[in-house]
Write a structure and sequence with these properties.
Helices cover 45% and strands 10% of the residues. With 242 residues, it is of the alpha+beta class. It has three domains: 92 residues, Glutaredoxin (3-Layer(aba) Sandwich), CATH 3.40.30.10; 55 residues, Glutathione S-transferase Yfyf (Class Pi), Chain A, domain 2 (Up-down Bundle), CATH 1.20.1050.10; 73 residues, Glutathione S-transferase Yfyf (Class Pi), Chain A, domain 2, CATH 1.20.1050.10. A hairpin with a 2-residue loop joins strand 3 and strand 4. The longest helix is centred in the middle third of the chain and has 29 residues.
Length: 242
C-alpha cells in the first residue's frame, strides 16, 4: 500500500478536531471525497513559507512584490510532488487518483473554476468579514499575531471594526447528482461558520434557514466527508516527515 499523502493544515481551538479554515477544508473535503489515504500535519501561520520552500511547493500569490505561501498544501510520497492551493490540489487528486470519485467530470473544469472565483469574490469575502475577528481569537498565540497583522492590511482596518456589507447570499444551487469540487468550496465556507461560531450562533442558525433550507441540506450531505484523521490531532506543531 502506498504511503499516505501528508496534508498540511492550520490548527485552531474553535472545533474539537481543531480543523477550522475554509481554505484547507476545501482540500480536506476533496481528499475525503476521493477516499485517498492521508495524514495531517498541523502548521502555524509563521511556519508556512519555510515549509513550502523546504517541500518545493509553489507560492500561491505575490504580495508586496514577494512570493506569498499559503495552506492547504500536500506532499505525496508516492510521486514526490508538493502541491499548494486547494483548487490545484483537487486537480492533482483527480489526475493522480482518478477513481472512484471524480471531482472534475469531463467538460466541467472551466465552469468550476469560474464558479469558484465568483463565489469567493461575492460570498466568501462577505463571510470573511464576519468571521475574521473570531477566527483570529481561536488561533494559537503566534498565529494570532500573524493573522491580525496580515488581515488588517488585507481588509483595510482593525478586525474589531470590520463589519459585513450587504445582506444575505444569492442562490448557489449546483446541478447534478454527484458533488463536485465546487460544492466542496461552498460547504467549506459554511463549515467555517459552524466551527468558529458554533451551531448555537445566530449566524449559523440564520444560514440553516436561508435559501429555503438549501444550506442545511448541503451541510447534511457533506457530513459524510467532514472527517479529520483522529490519529494526528495531537500533532499541533510543524513536524514534517519528508
Amino acid at each position: 500500500m502506498p504511503e499516505p499523502i501528508i496534508f498540511y493544515d492550520l490548527p485552531g481551538n474553535a472545533a474539537k478536531d481543531i480543523a477550522w479554515s475554509p481554505n484547507t477544508w476545501k482540500a480536506r473535503f476533496a481528499l475525503n471525497m476521493k477516499g485517498v489515504p492521508y495524514r495531517t500535519v498541523w502548521v502555524e501561520y509563521p511556519e508556512i513559507a519555510d515549509l513550502a520552500k523546504k517541500l518545493g511547493a509553489h507560492h500561491t500569490s505575490i504580495r508586496d512584490e514577494k512570493p506569498h505561501y499559503t495552506l492547504p498544501m500536500i506532499y505525496d510520497p508516492s510521486t514526490g510532488r508538493a502541491i499548494s492551493d486547494s483548487y490545484k490540489i483537487a486537480l492533482y487528486l483527480d489526475a493522480t487518483y482518478p477513481s472512484p470519485h471524480v471531482l472534475f467530470p469531463a467538460g466541467t473544469e472551466s465552469f468550476q473554476a469560474i464558479f469558484t472565483d465568483i463565489f469567493e469574490e461575492r460570498v466568501g469575502i462577505w463571510i470573511y468579514r464576519i468571521l475574521a475577528l473570531d477566527s483570529m481569537r481561536q488561533l494559537p498565540p503566534r498565529s494570532q499575531a500573524y493573522f491580525r497583522q496580515t488581515r488588517e492590511v488585507l481588509l483595510g482596518g482593525r478586525l474589531e471594526d470590520i463589519a459585513p456589507e450587504g445582506e444575505g447570499v444569492r442562490d448557489l444551487y449546483m446541478t447534478g447528482d454527484m458533488p463536485l469540487f465546487s460544492d466542496a468550496v461552498i460547504a467549506s465556507y459554511a463549515n467555517w461558520i459552524k466551527r468558529v461560531l458554533g451551531t448555537d450562533s445566530k449566524e449559523w442558525n440564520d444560514l440553516m434557514v436561508a435559501e429555503e433550507g438549501w444550506w442545511a441540506k448541503l451541510i447534511q450531505a457533506f457530513d459524510t466527508w467532514e472527517v479529520v484523521d483522529k490519529e494526528w490531532l495531537e500533532v499541533a506543531l510543524l513536524s514534517p516527515s519528508v
